[in-house]
Amino acid sequence: MAGSNGLHTLGRRYAHITGWGKALPDRIVTNQELEQIVDTSDEWIRTRSGIHQRYIAVDPRENAVTLGTRAAMAALDVADFPVSKLDLLICSTSSPAHLFPSTGSLIQDALGATRAGAFDLSAACSGFVYAISLANAMIVSGQVESVLVIGTEVLSRLIDWSDRNTCVLFGDGAGAVLLQASPVPGGVLSTVLGSDGSGGDLLSVPAGGTSMPTTLETVAAGQHFIKMDGKAVFRFATRIMVEATREALDKASMSIADVNLVIPHQANERIIRSSMKQLDLPDDKVFINLYNYGNTSTASIPIALCEAIEQGRLHSNDNLIMVGFGAGLTWAATAIKWAVPGAREVPRWRVSQRQASYSLARVRSRLLRYSRQVENSLTSEEGDVLGEVLAQRIEGWRKTRDE
Ligand code: COA
Known about the structure:
Helices cover 40% and strands 20% of the residues. The protein is of the alpha/beta class. The protein folds into 2 domains: 3-338, Peroxisomal Thiolase, Chain A, domain 1 (3-Layer(aba) Sandwich), CATH 3.40.47.10; 348-402. The strands form 4 sheets. Strands 1-7-6-4-5 form a 5-stranded mixed beta sheet, with helices on both faces. Strands 8-13-12-11 form a 4-stranded mixed beta sheet. It has a two-stranded antiparallel sheet with strand order 2-3. It is globular and about 65 Å long.
């Protein structure tokens, strides 16, 4: 047993965050711009939500995959981790590029993480913390050594830009963290996951799934946009943030006094301040950055984590709480002992090497697509031979890259 005396706990494994990154679209949309399109005011948005501006993916080529990939690359750079060694990629999103294939699989392909399993996790704004919980369980149980957790959203594509109740609140963006197994005590200490589906209708996109498939009528009725009962969500959020934080602290055998920093889901400044007040947490222990981003759903906590680190708000051995709530209804919290030393210099050449591997991943992906097309156009015997040759080439190529 280790802990306080610095020796490692025999055989125990811990999941530590070793890399982090964020990605945002280029276009900033201010409250003043929204005044031009709906009946609202900068004053109303600031006082009711705290939001000043948000990033919106106006470029149609930008989507949950492209943003998530950029955030993931940044996290791998910070960790200086070779993507070829990644075991698992969990992508949390409510605005996936497609119903399927999963956004996670497409990011895995873009990264060239050929060894990694990949899937999407759907728990709305709580999804990032849900994914941390899952990653922790996979690492601690010894099933994997490394997990990339990504939260990526392009909610602007699900917003009715004539609905002032929702369009002023949300923004686009992505954040990612790499978790790695370590014998050093710390990292993820506890996680809390919750759900109450009876509140599903309070925040939803009604159509486009199997209960209300897409028809001309659903499109005309705006049923593919986000619908929200803001007041009910507000009431739920202020209660559940408090309960989930307390539960995560209890499970980690910690008290409020042990907390160095809380990174809450960045939905509304009033929700955050009200819940943190109930917890007796002073302002300087709570990180808020929604002013500049709006509510980026599952991406809000990892984006805030990156900024907190950039601003020097997290130090080695700090006790960190991340807590979120969202559609479902869902909620999640985690207590983490931050055991990562401060910013490390990653040699420039290793960053370039990783970038080269992403270019190779793009070529590999195209080649695989092309070879499938060619295979389809051949007889089965010709196809088998060609498939075998290509598989050998790609395998050889992969080995050279990984050496
Ligand atoms: N500009 C101006 N007025 C607006 C507005 C806007 N963008 N959006 C709504 N209003 C109006 C409403 O129509 C309503 O008018 P009415 O009373 O005439 O019907 C009034 O403002 C409601 O104001 P208020 O009571 O102050 O609202 P609120 O304090 O509940 O704040 C929210 C509204 C949406 C900001 C707040 O409820 C909230 O943040 N809820 C949680 C939402 C959330 O976090 N969702 C994501 C969860 S992950």
